[in-house]
Amino acid sequence: MFQGSMVALVTPMHPDGRVDTDALARLVEFHVENGTDAIIAMGTTGESATLDETEHCEVIGQVVKMSAGRIPVIAGTGSNSTREAIELTRCAKQVGADACLLVTPYYNKPTQQGLYLHFRAVAEAVDIPQILYNVPGRTAVDMLPETVERLAGIPNIIGIKEATGDIARGRDIMQRCGPDFEVYSGDDATAVALILAGARGDISVTANVAPGDMHQMCAAALAGDAETAQAINQKLMPLHTRLFVEANPIPVKWALMEMGMISSGIRLPLTELSAENQPVVRLAMQQAGVL
């Protein structure tokens, strides 16, 4: 259903923390013009954890309206509360999102059975394509391949963003779930390898600042052109790694500010990129040719 370079879009903010709608529109146009294959609104990179439910739904609706059918919009609607995840997913459907991305419930550390029941409940409550999202480094819970396999049998659960960077695990999920279940990389540094192994694309942080190159890289990998994909990946590797010198989205929002795309706004408990890491990120941007 979706493939290629799928940007995990930042949520631009004014210095006082209010959502900057004008900058959001600029970012949407930037991605349409540079070939990004889908936009994920209100994911982790979009600071979903610090926006309230009303703001969350408003941003998704704004991105849908701004994209005007030119690019698919996938809404981040995960929560560690199953009821809240259902409500956010309902809202995303109502405002016209094409699909939803649901992270594993963070902090409360459910069992594998709890994960299965959580995602099944959301899928049964809202008839919209849903993509699972496994990122144990941030959530403190790891959804195992056998649980993904169980969930793949639910008709509107169409895929998973697997952000462990473990290629063997990605292969295992693909083998278990079959060709109709879409696996996406959630780790820019290993995305090419996973796509070449059969994944459908990359839900990307790097695409925020290098959308054209990320689109070309993913397209080459999907076409089986490993040489081209790996050459672009090598060029972008400084961004893949340095955009995580501090917690995402701190570095990528600073990078976009350097590019003149957004202002400095970010919400506590996140802070602006530290002075010592600004030259690190700036150098990576220069090496990747985006600054």
Features of the shown structure:
291 residues; alpha/beta; TIM Barrel; eight-stranded parallel β-barrel; 8 strands
Topology:
Elements: E1 4-8, H1 21-33, E2 38-41, H2 53-67, E3 73-76, H3 82-94, E4 99-103, H4 112-125, E5 130-134, H5 136-139, H6 145-151, E6 157-162, H7 167-177, E7 182-185, H8 191-196, E8 201-204, H9 211-222, H10 226-242, H11 250-258, H12 278-288
Helix pairs in contact: 1-2, 3-4, 4-6, 6-7, 9-10, 10-12, 11-12
Describe this structure in words.
With 291 residues, the chain is an alpha/beta fold. The protein has a single domain (4-229), classed as Aldolase class I (TIM Barrel, Alpha-Beta Barrel), CATH 3.20.20. Helix content is 45%, strand content 13%. It is built from twelve helices and eight strands. Strands 1-2-3-4-5-6-7-8 form an eight-stranded parallel β-barrel, surrounded by four helices. Helix 4 links the parallel strand 4 and strand 5 (130-134). Helix 3 (82-94) runs parallel beside helix 4, helix 9 crosses helix 10 (226-242) and helix 10 packs antiparallel against helix 12. The longest helix is centred in the C-terminal third of the chain and has 17 residues, at 226-242. The mean pLDDT is 97.
